[in-house]
């Protein structure tokens, strides 16, 4: 039986490989996480800039980012960028123009070229999809500063889905892009998200580095 893969059009670490073994001509789908896989993420750089602008110490700011309900609300689209900026600045004791906050908030990324450099070759054999916990400011920044997002056919983003990893709903959105019965494998740099994927029925492995990624993709026949 031939299995066809379907995609929806919509507007951010994981990697899902979808392979139809019944049809040798069927293109698989590879889904990448953003932060920790395609780009490195250094929140302490932004925290240091916020602290220098008069906020709380950088370590306190980092704890507010990682453990704050407002960050979760922003990642899941429940807070607008301006609402998040106002709440977050109040929480860390800082008065800052929105545009300046947005600039600092996005000063955390660096492209991992050893990974993004594989996308063109992968794209010859598979469709590329992004699955990310992210917010609209970060996604827009990455889109403007790096060209690799243009290589992706589909983006599954937490702020659009309304759920963030490890919630099963965001994994189910990605799984739902293909018909039932399609073989999948999922890679994420965060062990908790690997476990969550497995709980959703996705075979999952942790992303470690570009060398292991290449070996995994060669094993699946897309490199």
Throw out a few tags for this protein:
six-stranded mixed sheet; 8 strands; two-stranded antiparallel sheet; 2 domains; 223 residues; DNA polymerase, domain 1; alpha/beta; Rossmann fold
What does this structure look like?
Helix 1 packs across helix 2 and helix 3 (69-75) runs antiparallel to helix 4 (81-91). The longest helix has 11 residues, at 81-91. The protein has 2 domains: 15-40 and 109-219, Rossmann fold (3-Layer(aba) Sandwich), CATH 3.40.50; 43-105, DNA polymerase, domain 1 (Orthogonal Bundle). The strands form 2 sheets. Strands 6-5-2-1-7-8 form a 6-stranded mixed beta sheet. Strands 3-4 form a two-stranded antiparallel ribbon. Helices cover 43% and strands 15% of the residues. The protein is elongated. With 223 residues, the chain is α/β, with parallel strands linked by helices.
Short description:
With 223 residues, the protein is α/β, with parallel strands linked by helices. The protein has helices at residues 43-52, 58-67, 69-75, 81-91, 98-105, 113-116, 119-123, 136-145, 158-161, 168-175, 191-199, 210-219; strands spanning 15-19, 29-32, 39-41, 109-111, 127-132, 154-157, 183-188, 204-206.
Topology, element by element:
Elements: E1 15-19, E2 29-32, E3 39-41, H1 43-52, H2 58-67, H3 69-75, H4 81-91, H5 98-105, E4 109-111, H6 113-116, H7 119-123, E5 127-132, H8 136-145, E6 154-157, H9 158-161, H10 168-175, E7 183-188, H11 191-199, E8 204-206, H12 210-219
Parallel strand pairs: 2-5, 5-6, 7-8
Antiparallel strand pairs: 1-2, 1-7, 3-4
Helix pairs in contact: 1-2, 3-4
């Amino acid at each position: 039986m031939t299995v066809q893969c379907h995609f929806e059009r919509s507007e951010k670490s994981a990697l899902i490989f979808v392979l139809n073994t019944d049809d040798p001509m069927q293109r698989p789908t590879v889904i990448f996480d953003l932060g920790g896989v395609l780009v490195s993420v250094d929140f302490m750089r932004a925290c240091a800039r916020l602290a220098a602008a008069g906020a709380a110490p950088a370590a306190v700011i980092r704890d507010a980012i990682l453990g704050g309900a407002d960050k979760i609300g922003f990642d899941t689209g429940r807070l607008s960028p301006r609402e998040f900026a106002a709440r977050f600045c109040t929480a860390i004791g800082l008065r800052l123009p929105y545009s300046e906050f947005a600039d600092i908030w996005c000063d955390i990324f660096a492209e991992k070229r050893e990974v993004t450099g594989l996308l063109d070759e992968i794209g010859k054999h598979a469709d590329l999809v992004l699955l990310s916990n992210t917010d609209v400011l970060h996604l827009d920044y990455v889109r403007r500063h790096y060209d690799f997002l243009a290589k992706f056919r589909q983006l599954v983003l937490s702020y659009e889905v309304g759920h963030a990893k490890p919630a099963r709903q965001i994994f189910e959105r990605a799984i739902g892009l293909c018909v039932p019965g399609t073989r999948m494998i999922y890679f994420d740099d965060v062990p908790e998200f690997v476990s969550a994927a497995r709980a959703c029925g996705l075979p999952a492995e942790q992303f470690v580095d570009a060398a292991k990624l290449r070996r995994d993709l060669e094993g699946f026949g897309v490199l």
